[in-house]
Amino acid sequence: MVPHLVTALTGPINELEQRIIDSMPATERWFRLEWMEHTPPFYCSVDIRSAGFKLAPVDTNLYPDGWNNLSEPMLPLAVQAAMAAIEKICPEARNLLLIPENHRQDNTFYLCNIEQLVRIFRMAGLNVRVGSIDPDIKAPTEIALPNGGSVLLEPVIRSERRLGLKDFDPCTILVNNDLSSGAPGILEDLHEQYLLPPLHAGWHVRLKSRHFASYEEVTKRFSKMLGIDPWLINPMYNKCGEVDFNNSTGLDCLRSNTDSLLGRIRRKYKEYGIQEKPFVVVKADNGTSGIGIATVRDMHDLDALEERVRKVVPVRQGGQPISNVIIQEGILTHERINDAVAEPVVYMLDRYVVGGFYRVHAHRGIDENLNAPGARFVPLAFDDSNLLREPGKKPGAGAPNRFYMYGVVARLAMLAASYELEATDPLLEELS
Questions:
Q1: Looking at the structure, do residues 307 and 408 belong to the same domain, yes or no?
Q2: Angle, helix 24-37 to helix 403-424, in steps of 10 degrees
Q3: In contact, 356 and 380? CB cutoff 8 Å
Q4: Contact 225/26 with Cβ under 8 angstroms?
Q5: Are both 139 and 250 inside the same structural domain?
Q6: What is the Cα Rg of the chain in Å?
Q7: Most buried of 123, 133, 175, 252, CB within 10 angstroms?
Q8: Residue 252 pLDDT exceeds 60
Q9: Does residue 107 register a pLDDT over 60?
Q10: Please, how many CA atoms are within 13 Å of residue 146, restricted to the half-sphere of its CB?
Q11: Could you list the residue range(s) of the whole structural domain that residue 195 is in?
């Protein structure tokens, strides 16, 4: 199925796309030099929103699920990238152990994602088995999937320094669990085994504010090279680390930072002649799944939020209370598939873009979170998905193909994630 975007083919987004395509040689060289100095995350996905006048990431996941949403034509890209990634990390690799999230045995959609990952890495030349660290998995458990396939979950066996399965000793362990509840001890202090991603990539360490600070640094340098305003690809943000929703303290910090950010966005909208009403999104500084998200357009919305949290204290994934929040510039999404609002999610392995999909929601507005019940997923492809607009052509003259531009913005977010991981690497901290 090829999605047909119901999107205006005029306006600033086309000019931005053309600028990026015209600068393709410089862009690719810039990335190449960056990857000589920094190590990309093993895999990641980036949620992107296109407002028509700007295009920017809103979230970067270093333990991405949803691999089952990639289209079949894109899988060879994922397999080739997996080959390159494994060869770089462990050229002699033979066995790979995949660690899924706990307590997801009833979620066949998530397990379809695990099945797809197994398929990708088997095609990359590895023996792959799925090892569960869930204490409820005490014996090999095969779960049938709606697509006709199945996943075999096996209980892991931890020796003094290594992790494996019965008669299976992997040199590489791939984690598909975002560690929102903390790093499990069973994954610590492994000897001569590569753990991908490293433990400090989990949400028990990561902060969205740290990531977007790194992203801001990356976009400033990239935009200078491209000759564009960084704001066109960068969501502004403020953070507040003194909120205690249990005791309703720190809300003054939330109020002042929200008001300040809305003022900055209004000035940018005025500069570019944008008539839309600006908004911000308040969410947990660490954690996933959009838990604790609130949209604020003015101080009245913030009053409503404060009233709501007095009744129900927001928590992030894993049931952990929210104490740090990030206030992020809200980005409209004007992209549509049929009558549904759509946002692209781009997937990467190592430093390569390997595909993605549109998250589509028919019952959400252009300023609402689409990662919610009722969302569906459409493979990210176009009629001319392998074609790029030629440098120098008039913006809007060709078919809409955002794939390259999506990939550039996603790689900027991935580069920011590599900066972020370097800053929080405990081994580098010990050496410094």
A1: no
A2: 20
A3: yes
A4: yes
A5: no
A6: 22
A7: 175
A8: yes
A9: yes
A10: 9
A11: 72-204
Evaluate if residue 403 carries a pLDDT over 90. Answer: no
H/E/C letters for each residue in 268-330? HHHHHCCCCCCCEEEEECCCCCCCCCEEECCHHHHHHHHHHHHHCCCECCCCCECCCEEEEEC
End-to-end CA separation in angstroms for the chain: 51
Reported as half-sphere exposure (CB side, CA atoms, 13 A), residue 187 has a value of 27
Task: Considering only residues 341 and 60, tell me which one the structure prediction assigns the higher pLDDT.
Answer: 60
- Nearest 10 degrees: CA dihedral of 191, 192, 196, 198? 50
Residue 168 pLDDT level (bands cut at 50, 70, 90): very high
Residue 67 within a domain:
no
Could you give the number of structural domains in the chain? 3
Kind plus residue range of the DSSP H or E element containing 196: strand 194-196
pLDDT for 306: 67
* Same-domain pairing of 275 and 134: no
Q: Is residue 398 part of a domain?
A: yes
In angstroms, rounded to a whole number, what is the distance separating the alpha carbons of residues 82 and 61? Answer: 18
Q: What is the pLDDT of residue 1?
A: 41
Q: What is the mean pLDDT of residues 73-78?
A: 90
Name residue 151's beta-bridge partners: 143
As a whole number of angstroms, the distance between CA 291 and CA 45 comes to: 18
Q: Is residue 106 part of a domain?
A: yes
* Nearest in space to 125 (alpha carbons), one of 93, 97, 149, 147: 93
Amino acid identity at 297 = R
Span 258-275, pLDDT tens digits: 999 999 999 999 999 999
Same domain, yes or no: 174 and 299:
no
Residues 6+ apart with CB under 8 A from 30: 222, 225
Does residue 89 contact residue 266 with C-beta atoms inside 8 Å? no
Q: Which tokens hold the place of 245?
A: 């929703």
Q: Report pTM.
A: 0.91
% of the chain beyond a pLDDT of 70: 84
Q: Is residue 9 pLDDT above 70, yes or no? A: no
Residues 303 and 370 in one domain: no
Q: Which of 278, 295, 330 is the last residue of a domain?
A: 330
- The band of 2, judged by pLDDT with boundaries at 50, 70 and 90, is very low
Give the whole-angstrom CA distance, residue 213 versus residue 331.
17
pLDDT tier at 417, thresholds 50, 70, 90: very high
Q: Which of 129, 133, 36 is nearest to 88 (CA)?
A: 36
User: Same domain, yes or no, for 168 and 281?
Assistant: no
Residue 145 domain-assigned? yes
Question: What is the length of the chain?
Answer: 432
Quick one: pLDDT band at residue 59, thresholds 50, 70, 90?
Answer: very high
Q: What is d(CA 140, CA 212) in angstroms, rounded to the nearest whole number? A: 41
